Amino acid sequence: MRPALLLAAVALAASGCSADGASSDDAGQGALPDVVVDTEVTTTIDYVAMGDSFSAGPFIGTMRTDPEGCARSKDNYPAFLADWLDVASYTDVTCSAATTADLYAPMTMFNGGTTTPQIDAVSADTDLVTIGIGGNDFGIYDSLITCQEPGVSVCPVDQLDTDARKVAGRIEQAVRRITKVAPDAQVYVVGYPDILPTEGTCAAVGASAEVLGPVTDVAGLLNASLRKGAEAAGASYVDMEAVSKGHDVCAKGRAWVNGPRFRAGVAAPFHPKINGMRAVATEVFRQVTGDDPEVTEYAEPDPDVVVLNQS
């Protein structure tokens, strides 16, 4: 999520470095076609994944190269979801550092290349859309991470609160534009998991619990804004904040997110690890099917049905 941290991580990768649930009502949406939990049967679902680095999964395992400047993992939650749903087609246009503006316009990636607008992946044939975005708007998440670093005595919490509230309108607009192109699609807006602890602190976090409290409040407000925007436009909201409690960066072996160090093959700083991606995919799967998935160690969507996103 944090552009400065990811930029350094992309540079390292380019130089040769290898690098559990809440539900919501599906307001205004019909059933997905032929959803089958048995993974031996391919469904007729055409799936498009949109979003930022919390969806793309920078530096988890192997990075995809379509395009490589998005730092998109082969084991992000869209890949797990496509695998477990056995979709008929799967297009992943998630891209690290994306904002809601990048849904509608070409985005300049870390390597200087450009992507097509993410919404271009959606068509009248699209049945399922997941979208996890908004934290990069106004630099919200970048500021939240900066605010918890050692030596930071002032954090613009009031401005961050204001900015987080603005995201609701942007998400509502995004969902409405998606459903205008794909009127029969179910749209799931995926919230952000807890990255920082809601109580206490730890060595992985630079700030005291007193300083950290207002910072985590902003993160909660951002998720509330995502929910508000999703529901206003008739989309479902996937509440990852609710299910990720106790899995933040201070949770040690139970953490779903990486700490402050860039760890090639594991995750970018303060980003979900592969277990966090499985957790998101599990929660979305539950909402789509009403059942639990057969969780796999790695994501292996059928290569015959994967539609690659080209820059």
Automatic annotation (TrEMBL):
CDD domains assigned: SEST_like (cd01823)
Active site (catalytic residues): S53, H271
Keyword Hydrolase: yes
Signal peptide coordinates: 1-19
Top-level taxon: Bacteria
Pfam families: Lipase_GDSL_2
Biological process annotations from GO: triglyceride catabolic process
Molecular functions per Gene Ontology: triacylglycerol lipase activity
Disulphide-bridged cysteine pairs: C70-C95, C147-C155, C202-C250
Residues annotated as domain SGNH hydrolase-type esterase: 49-278
Keywords noted in UniProt: Disulfide bond, Hydrolase, Signal
PANTHER family: LIPASE 2, SGNH HYDROLASE-TYPE ESTERASE DOMAIN-CONTAINING PROTEIN
The name this protein goes by in its record: SGNH/GDSL hydrolase family protein
Organism field: Nocardioides zhouii
